Amino acid sequence: MIQRRTVLTSGAALTGALGGAGIVVPALSGRARATDPATGPGDVPQFQQAMPVPETLEPTFASGTTAYYSMTMKEVDSEILPGRLTRVRTFNGSFPGPVIKAVSGRRVVIRQTNHLTVPTSIHLHGAHVPQSSDGSPMDLIAAGGGTKTYTYPNSQPHANLWFHDHAHHHESETVYRGLTGLYLLSDDVEQNLDLPSGVYDVPIALRDARFDDSGQLAYTMNDPKRTVLLANGKAWPYFEVAARAYRFRLFNTSNMRFFVLKLSDGSSFHQIGTDGGLLEEPFETASLALSPGERADIVVDFSRYAAGTTLVLNNARPLRPDDPVDQLTKVLQFRVAGPVANSTLPATLRTLPPLGSATVNRSFELSMDETGVTQDAYINGRPYDMDRVDTEIEYGATEIWTVRNASTRLPHNFHLHLVQFRVLERDGRPVTSGPESGLKDTVALQPGETVKIQATFTGYEGTYVYHCHMIDHAAMGMMANFRVSRSRVR
């Protein structure tokens, strides 16, 4: 059985990552402390750095059926805090990580080379892939030059996917130090819609961090004081927009941080998609919740604002008594320029496949030591064991899983590899519309909360994992194996 590393340092059990509604008073400029007042590089000016758009990686070779890429994992220095260089772990030296643009039905093959000092395993989060390319926790690429080739068939509809390290006992720190990238999978359904495109279609990776006196990332397992918020690799940046509609593809790439995002003037926007692609129709809202690993596709129309207007994308969430309000309630500033030609949001986006009939029901309970005495986390009372298959599934089966957060103070979430699922109920209330009515692969659970999900396990046989995607919790043991087989043991 795999045991936790003894080098994992103990952190506070309460992460400060609780998500929830709340109203904050917007502030459009200022400075913020980079870490706990007793440490760190001092005041960090907010909204002084432009938010970059992650670079799109070009294939090294492309045929009619396949695009080939080559990536090297390595450490580089990046300017996250203004005027300071921070050492980060990257794909191809890019922080934020690069973007791969793929098309449904056309394979992507990526040769990954690991020049880091720790082993890695690259997981394409949300992808329908064979076990050999899933990035299993113990399917490792050796440090110091090891290589592995991943094949992604892209045999699924459009979706906003992302890739990150999944090497057990290393994933928490390696992801925290930057080893992530974005993977935008498109298809004809999406491309035939008049959605904002080109420079008006912007992926944004959100996360938090903590820095030491020298401006380096400070890592502690389960750390509640990661209070510097980053958008596309910059601390509290600004982004200049034209007075027209923008599509923002939002990725929560944090280890632990929950976001509840609102515009500072309280105005509404439209959510058009979630983890597994577009919703059936746009959903108008003034608030968007994202747990670690979740994605959301939104359209914000800035044509209603005069040139020169500034807006802040706020994080509205309950704060711990010792949390720095000025830091955790602001994420990104928008600066509105002049108007340009606009696009029209379609009333209908897609038709989702019917749910089908489930033949198997299962229950799962997420729990952990909330006292801070140990770093133990469980699913159904057991920590992760790479050699144990926890759930046997018949190939092609449609199943309903009831997942409960048994913790009394801590949030969790639940991520399922191989397949997208549908959320049927939350605390007994049916989910028939809104952001959780689409295809999902990650779902949030507040303390004591229960969700019911439905998935069909087809496409590939093999052993995969399900786990809490608060990555520190997965590294602490909140993960389990499931095996899909045509001849499963009953």
Automatic annotation (TrEMBL):
It comes from the Bacteria. PROSITE patterns: MULTICOPPER_OXIDASE1, MULTICOPPER_OXIDASE2, TAT. The keyword Lipoprotein does not apply. It catalyses: 4 Cu(+) + O2 + 4 H(+) = 4 Cu(2+) + 2 H2O. Pfam families: Cu-oxidase (PF00394), Cu-oxidase_2 (PF07731), Cu-oxidase_3 (PF07732). CDD domains: CuRO_3_CueO_FtsP (cd13890). Residues 77-185, 243-304, 368-485 form the Plastocyanin-like domain. Its EC number is 1.16.3.4. The keyword Transport does not apply. Keywords: Metal-binding, Oxidoreductase. PANTHER family: BILIRUBIN OXIDASE, CUPREDOXIN SUPERFAMILY PROTEIN. Belongs to the multicopper oxidase family. Monomer. This is Multicopper oxidase CueO. It comes from Streptomyces marokkonensis.
